[in-house]
User: Which sequence fits this backbone?
């Protein structure tokens, strides 16, 4: 009897250490309805933007719960649709193409308008910012020199001999390989699944495992490695303005005002600077970089 | 190491989630495994069916189970259940064997004596069989717990919490100190849990050290 | 899943099922070889001398606590991409069960046999190699096969940092939300694990003395 009591006590001690195991302190039960769950995609810039939204809202007294680094859109969009995530930073062009793969708009304003119409009932996007971060076909300095490349058009005659690297989903997305094929008639010899503009892709370019890759235009690695971003005259990659995607029920006036104020102050130059800060040798946490920027932007 | 001190809040937050995600499956899995293990200790056919099945379950990669769970049981993708269910499955697979072996190893003459003294089956199980089976059971529990603590990090690959978050973020931003911080957390947690279970085992089986 | 698995397109080419299967098998076998070369001598030596058992058990437990994902990522960050990080992570995973099994096996050898060997004038190395290890084989194989199962299952993670193997299907399936592909990857890994275990079971039958085979399938091991 005594031993059983000790065992029970021990188990209770264990569970006391970790909080009540069955209801948890946060993620296990749905957050109370006035909390906004902020999510992010699986790359640093997305996390940074999510932290910016989260910090700004917290400062205004809104209750926030964070679910960062979820995965790619194919994964997290389901979470947005089913209400597990209320707010996530997005990019106009890719989101539009994801929801409606036959969308043809390319200009910033047209894409924005089309996106607003294409979204399902319960989701809305707020004001778009000037900041743009587009997918791009990127090559190393050497390859650009070797084939005299400035735009994707220049790449076309060589596509069939080259290996292309990018996130797995690039193979399927309308503004990925299918788009390159349709608009430029560029079909690569092989596609290698790497990651979402991360270390694998950068390494793949550097060691020539792939000769061209999908990177993001605000990625600090481009400047750091002297990569060349090929121009996209046929606009496979439409305008990609950064903006918040939010569940309509959670978009109170205060939330809208705060997020719109952020979008006003965000432009591509800021994104580039912040990304560079993130990859500085001391690797500051996105939360810290976000707070500093918000302070300097006066939000 | 310094990463932990500089980002204590985040580290602690992540630790809490990791703890919760490791402990719940161990407890649930343990409880579920007891009847199954008991059955396997008494029936040859049960062993022949359960053991190979358990072995196969163990070979399904954790990442695959974690990703498939939301589809199979219709939960939202970010629900923590998606990590808990696979870990419960692994724990049960491990503990069934452990408990079966532990119960089989209970000396037959002790059981016979208890029966002869008039112990009813349930009381006998709780006060004779089970305590005697504890050492081997706890050994199995220790392996299951350490194993769970290590596997929770895989959940980060689909955005679930725990130290795995530190691994994926550290990878994406080339930040080894962050990855090491998560690694230290995991190992410390595992060592503490293992030690705690060892202690509990010793407390519950004083007869094992009697006569030293 | 049947759809994806039986689609002939997925069986050909450099990213097809056979290639990934072989890559996965390759990781597993080479890892087990390296781990065995490290763990068996260590476990056997400590088991034989009887000193330092505490270290072996402690080391084993500590290594077991290392999350493979973290080790993989760390080695990638330090040494770059490729297969090397995969092997480091998997070998560290495989060492504990093999070392523990070898140690336990050697310790459990009937002391009478060991004594007799010394009695007939065998040198220590002879005792170890000709008496203890052959007698410890069942437990060594136990640890080895356990390690094999873990390695096959965990090698799936290698694909996260761009290496090959069946994990590629799991991660690609995840990125594309193609459950057929993910399930196929998982099933193939489980199948491979069963096959590898059967292979080693056969090897065990061949190399372990018939005198050591378990008699019947009683409850005691």
Assistant:
């Amino acid at each position: 009897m005594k031993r059983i009591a000790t065992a029970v006590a021990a188990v209770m001690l264990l569970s006391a250490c970790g909080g009540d195991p069955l209801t948890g302190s946060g993620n296990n039960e749905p957050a109370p309805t006035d909390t906004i769950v902020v999510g992010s995609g699986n790359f640093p810039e997305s996390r940074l933007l999510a932290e910016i939204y989260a910090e700004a809202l917290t400062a205004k007294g809104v209750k926030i719960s964070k679910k960062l680094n979820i995965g790619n859109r194919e994964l997290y969009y389901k979470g947005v649709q089913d209400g597990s995530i209320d707010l996530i930073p997005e990019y106009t062009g890719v989101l539009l193409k994801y929801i409606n793969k036959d969308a043809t708009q390319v200009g910033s304003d047209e894409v924005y308008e089309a996106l607003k119409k294409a979204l399902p009932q319960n989701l809305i996007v707020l004001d778009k910012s000037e900041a743009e971060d587009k997918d791009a076909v990127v090559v190393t300095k050497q390859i650009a020199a070797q084939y005299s490349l400035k735009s994707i058009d220049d790449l076309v005659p060589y596509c069939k001999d080259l290996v292309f690297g990018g996130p797995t989903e690039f193979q399927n997305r309308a503004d990925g390989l299918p788009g390159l094929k349709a608009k430029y008639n560029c079909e690569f010899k092989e596609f290698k699944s790497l990651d979402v503009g991360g270390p694998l892709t950068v390494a793949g370019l550097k060691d020539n495992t792939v000769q061209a890759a999908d990177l993001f235009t605000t990625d600090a690695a481009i400047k750091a490695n002297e990569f060349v971003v090929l121009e996209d005259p046929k606009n496979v990659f439409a305008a990609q303005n950064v903006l918040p995607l939010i569940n309509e029920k959670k978009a109170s006036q205060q939330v809208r005002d705060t997020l719109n104020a952020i979008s006003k102050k965000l432009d591509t130059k800021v994104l580039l600077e912040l990304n560079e800060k993130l990859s500085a040798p001391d690797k500051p946490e996105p939360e810290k970089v976000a707070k500093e920027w918000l302070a300097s932007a006066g939000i | 190491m310094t990463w932990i001190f500089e980002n204590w809040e985040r580290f602690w937050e992540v630790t809490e989630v990791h703890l919760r995600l490791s402990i719940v499956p161990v407890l649930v899995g343990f409880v579920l495994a007891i009847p199954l293990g008991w059955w396997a200790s008494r029936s040859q056919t049960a062993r022949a069916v359960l053991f190979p099945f358990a072995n196969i379950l163990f070979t399904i990669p954790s990442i695959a189970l974690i990703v498939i769970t939301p589809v199979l049981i219709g939960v939202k993708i970010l629900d923590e259940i998606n990590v808990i269910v696979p870990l419960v499955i692994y724990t049960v697979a491990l503990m069934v064997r452990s408990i079966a072996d532990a119960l089989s190893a209970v000396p037959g003459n002790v059981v016979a004596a208890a029966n002869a003294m008039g112990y009813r089956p349930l009381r006998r199980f709780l006060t004779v069989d089970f305590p005697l089976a504890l050492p081997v059971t706890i050994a199995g529990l220790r392996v299951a717990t350490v194993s769970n603590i290590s596997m929770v990090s895989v959940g980060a690959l689909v955005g679930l919490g725990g130290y795995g978050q530190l691994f994926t973020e550290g990878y994406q931003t080339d930040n080894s100190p962050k990855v090491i911080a998560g690694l230290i957390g995991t190992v410390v947690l595992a060592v503490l849990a293992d030690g705690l279970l060892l202690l509990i085992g010793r407390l519950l089986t004083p007869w094992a050290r009697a006569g030293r | 899943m049947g759809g994806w698995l039986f689609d002939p397109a997925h069986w050909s080419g450099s990213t097809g099922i056979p290639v990934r299967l072989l890559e996965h098998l390759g990781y597993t076998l080479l890892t087990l070889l390296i781990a065995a070369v490290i763990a068996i001598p260590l476990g056997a030596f400590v088991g034989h001398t009887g000193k330092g058992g505490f270290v072996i058990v402690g080391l084993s437990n500590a290594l077991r606590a290392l999350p493979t994902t973290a080790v993989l990522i760390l080695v990638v960050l330090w040494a770059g991409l490729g297969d090397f990080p995969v092997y480091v992570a998997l070998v560290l995973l495989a060492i504990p069960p093999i070392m523990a099994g070898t140690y336990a096996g050697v310790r459990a050898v009937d002391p009478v046999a060991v004594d007799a060997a010394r009695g007939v004038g065998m040198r220590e190395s002879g005792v170890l190699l000709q008496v203890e290890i052959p007698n410890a084989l069942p437990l060594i194989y136990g640890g080895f096969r356990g390690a094999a199962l873990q390695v096959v299952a965990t090698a799936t993670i290698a694909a996260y940092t761009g290496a090959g193997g069946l994990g590629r299907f799991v991660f690609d399936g995840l990125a594309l939300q193609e459950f057929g592909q993910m399930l196929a990857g998982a099933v193939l890994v489980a199948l491979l694990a069963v096959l590898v275990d059967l292979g080693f079971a056969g090897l065990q039958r061949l190399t372990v003395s018939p005198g050591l085979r378990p008699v019947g399938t009683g409850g005691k091991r």
Q: What stands out?
A: Chain B touches chain A at residues 7, 10, 16-17, 19-20, 23-24, 27, 76-80, 131, 156-159, 161, 165, 168-169, 171-175, 177-178, 196, 200, 203-204 (CB under 8 Å). Residues 8-42 of chain B form the longest helix (35 residues). DSSP finds nine helices and no strands in chain B. The radius of gyration of chain B is 20 Å.
